[in-house]
Write a structure and sequence with these properties.
- The chain is mostly beta strands and 173 residues long.
- Among the domains are: 77 residues, Sandwich (Immunoglobulin-like); 34 residues, no CATH class.
- 0% of the residues lie in helices and 44% in strands.
- The strands form 4 sheets. Strands 1, 3, 4 and 7 form a 4-stranded antiparallel beta sheet that branches.
- It is elongated.
- It comes from Microctonus hyperodae.
- One of its GO terms (molecular function) is peptide binding.
- One of its GO terms (biological process) is peptide catabolic process.
């Protein structure tokens, strides 16, 4: 998807560390309104071997994204990688947009509200009250933009992309 900053869409990726405590042939994540790039979905075991995926299914009613594997996943540690696209919505749940006036200009801001089950609108995750997990979130933005958070910032990293020059500013992460 091309980077277009006026249509309130974004690209994302998640890397989820899993501890499987009982053999299973599937992983079910919560997703609401996101487009998963199924071709990029990858599960690695602790030896960094890529495991064969049988199917990837959306259950829109239950807001599930179900990944089934060719073979059972045994007890152990795994890493699940997904790429996705989302929309910064115009409601007040998940990852949404708001605006304010600065003189004659309308300025847009992106806001999050993940409680109780709205993180699934921002990124694929385990988003059930009994499955809450800690996570690290990286936000890419341009140098003329400000990011604030209610948690401590871990790092700032300058990133450069061939199409990241917007108003002459380079991106930050």
């Amino acid at each position: 998807m091309p980077r277009t900053w006026n249509n309130f869409t974004y690209e994302g990726q998640v890397l989820i560390d899993l501890s499987i405590i009982k053999n299973t042939n599937s992983i079910t994540l919560n997703v609401d309104g996101l487009i998963i790039h199924k071709i990029n979905t990858t599960l690695l075991n602790s030896q960094h071997n890529c495991l064969a995926i049988l199917s990837q299914i959306f259950d829109e009613e239950k807001q599930f994204f179900i990944i089934r594997f060719t073979n059972d996943l045994g007890i152990g540690n795994y890493s699940l990688y997904l790429k996705f696209n989302g929309e910064i919505r115009d409601d007040v749940f998940g990852f949404y947009r708001s605006n304010y006036k600065d003189g004659d200009k309308i300025k847009w801001i992106a806001v999050t509200q993940f409680s109780p089950i709205f993180a699934r609108r921002a990124f694929p995750c385990f988003d059930e009250p009994y499955l809450k997990a800690t996570f690290k979130l990286g936000i890419g933005h341009y140098g003329n933009q400000t990011i604030t958070s209610n948690t401590q910032r871990e790092k700032i990293q300058l990133i450069r992309h061939e199409d990241d020059d917007w108003n002459g500013k380079n991106g930050k992460l």
